[in-house]
Queue: 3 jobs
Job 1
Amino acid sequence: MSLQIIASIREFGGYLNRYSHDSASCHCEMIFSIYLPPQAQNEKVPALYWLSGLTCTDDNARSKAGAQRYAAEHGIALIFPDTSPRGEDVADAERYDLGQGASFYVNATQPPWAGHYQMYDYVSRELPALLEENLPLLAGVKSVSGHSMGGHGALICALKNPSGYRSVSAFAPICNPVNGEWGKTCFTAYLGDDRTTWNAYDATALVEAGARVSDILIDQGTADEFYDEKQLLPESLKAACDKAGQAITLRMQEDYDHSYHFIASFIGEHIAYHARALKS
Amino acid sequence: MSLQIIASIREFGGYLNRYSHDSASCHCEMIFSIYLPPQAQNEKVPALYWLSGLTCTDDNARSKAGAQRYAAEHGIALIFPDTSPRGEDVADAERYDLGQGASFYVNATQPPWAGHYQMYDYVSRELPALLEENLPLLAGVKSVSGHSMGGHGALICALKNPSGYRSVSAFAPICNPVNGEWGKTCFTAYLGDDRTTWNAYDATALVEAGARVSDILIDQGTADEFYDEKQLLPESLKAACDKAGQAITLRMQEDYDHSYHFIASFIGEHIAYHARALKS
């Protein structure tokens, strides 16, 4: 598994690089971006994985979230994986919320998805191992965050691997996909009709089943159309955490929407939150 | 001339709004965005106009430059005009560097452009008057910056109106368009074959002809492909300024390219620079 560099852009004294590689998990070529802060030129640095939402590639967050400035200040690398396997040989759907760009970060078990859609293994195991071997990242010192479908991805990665991540946060995450239309559509396609298999990828169900992390930070805008549509259901996760004694900070941000303008407004606080955990 | 609000997005405690209006200069509907910082909810604030480059709309800089964070800190409004008139009735060209998205911020005199392409008047006169009448902006307290073709626009707006702008800066501006391929193509189309008319919209020629501003700040990346192609020619402007005794700070930024990642890296310093002038 070797990394091929596609592009390198200087930013805030560091470098925003894009790589491709053959993925053993997804059985296809995968593309990701990584921001290496200035500190990485002289030493290994901690890593924050950012999982993006529906329809995104590795480019959206790196171009719109305004995160690199804070990563440079704190000396943290940012990793931007793609949101699904891609290519002519990879199954897809006409709708935007299923298939390419919409993996939901699960390991699919159902045809035609199972062959390539192994994104849970890819983002939580294969990619960190690959990067820690080949780039100036501290081994095992990583945290995870994300937006919407990627916020869901961040939550399940941390809850399923409590020793694997130092901290977890999310922006407008899909907190209880088994009870939202997006989640039900995708989990049926990727995991089949047996809903008991869905709970392994549902943050609320994971907490109910006993999964624990040190803390959870979530920002949710009150003017978010998908919050209104009950796709996100942060109250379900909050209730499960409160019942289980799981620490969670759910901040309802008045009048903020679902866009990257919302993310940009609070990403600095999230990166500072992760920096405290990554450097403790 | 009334403003129609199209969208309003909360960001960094303020609001990023998009408006449309009928332009008397361009004889068509124009769209722009404005970021009103939190301070504008209680008082009138200074304004920084941002002129974007080839192919951009009002959306590129507002989504990618990371400027709103600094505008909120300093209490400055950011105005993002479109880069040209648009619409089915507006002349256009197949190439990306002429016509819609490529006005060069001049008042065109030649058919088929002259009817709508009056962007110099639009950005330097009509739009500021409209906004100061309708939005919480301090009358006449404005500065200007921009990128590439928009950096050219910022320089000529300030040099042609030394009392109209408190300060001017630019990222990778086209400093001497009469001697670059982009500029020669567009000035021929918009202004005709008589090159003596071109000098009124060329920053280097304006300085040579006696135009003066208090100071000029320019950042230019050394890995910028358009710098290599001699489209930008910052050395020509620097030489003219040095000869004329015009203050200029030209910072060659090692290994930075022409992208918004370059802009994001230094926009905080530019906004701090403008804030000092706008609040003095």
Note: Chain B has a mean pLDDT of 97.
Job 2
Amino acid sequence: MRLTQTVQKGGCAAKVSAIELRKILAQVKFPPLRSEVKVDGALFDDAAIVQVTPEIAMVQTLDFFTPILDSPFLFGKVATTNALSDVYAMGGKPQTALAILTFPAADMDLGVVTDVLQGACEALTGAHCSLVGGHSVDDPTLKFGLSVSGIVHPEKIWTNSKAQVGDRLILTKALGTGAATAALKRSEVTEAEISEEIVSMTQMNQIQDLLGADLLSSVHAATDITGFGFAGHCQQMAKASGKTFQIQAASMPLFEKTKIYLEKGFLTKAHRTNKEYTAEFSNFSRLSEMQKLTLFDPQTSGGLFLSVKESEASQILQKLKTRFQKAQIVGDVMSQTSFAVEYLP
Amino acid sequence: MRLTQTVQKGGCAAKVSAIELRKILAQVKFPPLRSEVKVDGALFDDAAIVQVTPEIAMVQTLDFFTPILDSPFLFGKVATTNALSDVYAMGGKPQTALAILTFPAADMDLGVVTDVLQGACEALTGAHCSLVGGHSVDDPTLKFGLSVSGIVHPEKIWTNSKAQVGDRLILTKALGTGAATAALKRSEVTEAEISEEIVSMTQMNQIQDLLGADLLSSVHAATDITGFGFAGHCQQMAKASGKTFQIQAASMPLFEKTKIYLEKGFLTKAHRTNKEYTAEFSNFSRLSEMQKLTLFDPQTSGGLFLSVKESEASQILQKLKTRFQKAQIVGDVMSQTSFAVEYLP
């Protein structure tokens, strides 16, 4: 059985689109925000922050999706790396996770589910994160993910909203997991042929040990690139920070075959919805169709997108490159103009 | 559109059975447990406990399921009450929640999803719990739930495992939501006709304000009754505590029509799997078939099951009855014998 053949959409491409989500959330009257909540979902941050003591805040996040790969073990590992990433993107350290699991209990070999969990546990072990519980539902399609809790010092939180004029923008992983996994789902490639993308999706977004305390404090804002694509998450950070991001599309790191897969039309619904989501506030007018497609490509377990102090940018990039070979400086932060994001060819 | 007609199984009856779950988990090699983790899923507790400071621990839990009612608002409210219950069952106070949401984005009126979220927000507001984020997946069937975080003093945690010989056992809500909602799903009753069960499912398991500090400290162990039925959760608590629970089946609180619905055969798969799950360690030999069925009935947002100091039991019951009219003393804790649970007729 090939897991990707059991679902309509895989991975972060299965997210409900940002436009639909906005429509729904605009109608809901939410409970009051407790004073302990320092960051909630209002600015599209990757995780919530809840202060516990003056020195300790909890980072709370939740992510789950349908199979993006055929191998249950790798699917579990990618889903877990993706869920943990939201804690890292806030500057936190994961501590505990609860599993979110659905599968057709009567029709699916339990060994498949075991392998998904084992892949998850391998990634959790690497992140020193304990699996402390979860909930499983009997459902026609396999879905897996985690609610992850971590800790962060309240003064060292990274959010979407503090990019500063003059900052340089760094992306740590290549773009193109959406097209590659679409090709896999259509049986146009094998899992072995997209190993570059799989290695990237299982690479933990942990960078705190790479950068010392000084360099860490030069990171002004951060997010991770997932289902809404580079274009979607970049726009969210620019808007949350009240700045305009100028992006050099030519600097954007891609996997070796991303353009080939996109040329062949290995697209998902998210390529279209991410385009719609960014049409109003991002200016793509100087880009080629291919450049635009790479920016709309929905990433699963994509890289970190960092806004860093200009004077430290090249040193930070150099350190990041020792682990993330595809890391690049991809743009700059400017004062706010009519667009949140300006793309240069 | 009637929500219950869009899914095969509803509510906590859609849980993967405890037997299947045990088979899967037995095969998985888990990450090491961090020293901060004071309670994990090993003893089937309702939530995990992670210590943050000597005075503060976090309670972490996660629950989600398919529609158990036709009204989106009520479904959201019941799912939320059910998720919050796990925090209360550990002696904690909820603080923040993350939403788990799946729905068919192309086919479902967004107003349905809005109503589910609004029902959730009403329950969260009542619990002083903030909604701080979440994740949504485009999926053929609606599912909703929450990952909830709360706080508890590390010395005031209620677990499954500390029932003491001589304790009396109290159940706070009536049994029978499984049969009633099965009847609804089969269109044998309307939502209005099961209002007693719906009121119960939306009643928060908050009891800390009812019992003073003294009475709270007389609660030695606690859990909430959900998908594995009274029989399943009672057995889990007896085994975790290393005791035998003697239960008076005749004292068990039921909804007015629970027996009628069960007699008519409004059963779910969980009635069978809960029977299998408890066949080895619980002795039902003196009970009628009807009594057994009530014990296997899967509860959604069921009551708290408390093991309390014998001398305070009647005072605790009296206080509980001011809010939970169906609360009853249903049994006693004995030294361990060959069965974890002995049912008396």
Note: The longest helix of chain B spans residues 72-89.
Job 3
Amino acid sequence: MNDVIKYDIAIIGSGPAGLSAAIYAARGGLKTVVFEKGIMGGQITVTQEVENYPGFHKTLSGFELMDEMKKHADKFNTDYREEEVKGIGLQGLCKVIETNKGMYHAKTLIFATGAHPRKLNVPGEDKFYGKGVSYCATCDGVFYRDKAVAVVGGGDSAVEEAIFLTRFVKKVYLIHRRDKLRAVQIIQERAFNNPKIEIIWDSEVQEVNGDDFVTSITIYNKKLEKRSKVPVDGIFIYAGILPNNEIIESRIELDEAGFVKVNEDMHTNVPGIYAAGDIVSKKLRQVITAAADGAIAAWSAEKWITYHEDDDDTTEFATCEIPQKK
Amino acid sequence: MNDVIKYDIAIIGSGPAGLSAAIYAARGGLKTVVFEKGIMGGQITVTQEVENYPGFHKTLSGFELMDEMKKHADKFNTDYREEEVKGIGLQGLCKVIETNKGMYHAKTLIFATGAHPRKLNVPGEDKFYGKGVSYCATCDGVFYRDKAVAVVGGGDSAVEEAIFLTRFVKKVYLIHRRDKLRAVQIIQERAFNNPKIEIIWDSEVQEVNGDDFVTSITIYNKKLEKRSKVPVDGIFIYAGILPNNEIIESRIELDEAGFVKVNEDMHTNVPGIYAAGDIVSKKLRQVITAAADGAIAAWSAEKWITYHEDDDDTTEFATCEIPQKK
């Protein structure tokens, strides 16, 4: 085991949470690694326009923003490994990380694996992503001023965001597959009373249509057994958000939807293991909140190491053979 | 009262928390105002080098960073008022804001008034701020690589940060006015066992000395009644952090130190009143965490308005005469 590379902190995922954690950890003097199995930057990199990361007032693409963060992490000598983490093990206080390329040891670990929206899986959904298809009204609503949009879903998020969108758009079609909404009563009433919102019941989206940009959606009314086209400039899909939790260590406590529970230090229930960003059980998932999570997690991890590192024999920690402290 | 200006959201303070809240609120279609009694940008503007706000990898001054955030808020038509808030009143759900120049109504309110470090109030402290005097090792520690620094204090923060600094510096003098530390036992032991840390007991800092930059501090040992000079390149002062809570509405719950308690939505115990940034009861106070707080508070405020705004008669809300909803 002598050739195992040992880190103070291992970060899984290179989105805003992971890279922010890396900036804080590496700048804080910790030996830091980021593992990324796919594309550097995470989910946000597929976003064409980011205009709400405070300080970047010139609209840039998600990829461009993450490229700036990556340069920032590189500045402080973060190790960046394009490897897929296959599993996590614990040996006392030490974390063992197995990837498709090797084995690593770390004193602390941050899961920054993110989340992704549940798709409708209909034709046109992927093609028009960022060109009329969105999963986040907070992010993209403002781009649809005085336009017509569809919102798909019937839960709190869908109905809240339909109402939110009426701050900008001229018309919202709220498309729900059942004949009643699941959202709480008061928010349903707000939607019913909002003159800009028209609810289309018992209907599913079958296709997203357009040229360069979305121009309409094809819906199917199950009760009437009727297909029709609704002219819209955009479609906001609220079919749920799914945590990327496949490699989350089994001892880590999750909420009902599979997101990681953390305390105010971003600490999970497992000592020395943190989570940050969209994978965390929380309400608002934005670049800025993910980046803050990452900073807090890295800062907390440094403090945790200070409290748990045995000054007499730090090598024990690093070789994953340190016994649990009393 | 007809000429009172009415806002959806009033933000008090224009630091990272306040401006981020403004970006999210104004971009989210809310009529937004920021009140600032002093210099735009808050506490961070006096910082010469910020290099840990993720994405800004080219080191910039606190003022420059906040100037970018101000431009960002301006882009979405935030009202910016250089007025001192004198008091806050509540009329049902509506907030009444009295400044040195007038009276305003708002549906929601965000306190982003910040905090400030307790100073030693010794000669040289202000003169060398940013030139060797710091109140934040997380922010500035990395600038003292292989140098000698003093840390002043004896609580958890002082001792933790003294240990943190040993990741960079060659020597830390921990200067404490008593003959024992207040920090928890385990962290005291870590400090005692750290070869880079020398504790100077029973001593107070009397002066910070230097030319362009700090070169030494003058300390006074109360037991020995002896004055001496300690050669250091920097001094980190941990005498406590104080909340700027003078105008916080009296019904708002504070922690023991006077910081505002909030839930995960940054909501205080008073409906529709939020807090964000350094004024919040929390551990890590950084630009990135303040900005995230602001985004969450603004997002939460928008949802709160949606839930509480009466669609039949929104004017009642705006004129501060709406009764509390059941």
Note: The first strand of chain B starts at residue 5 and ends at 12.
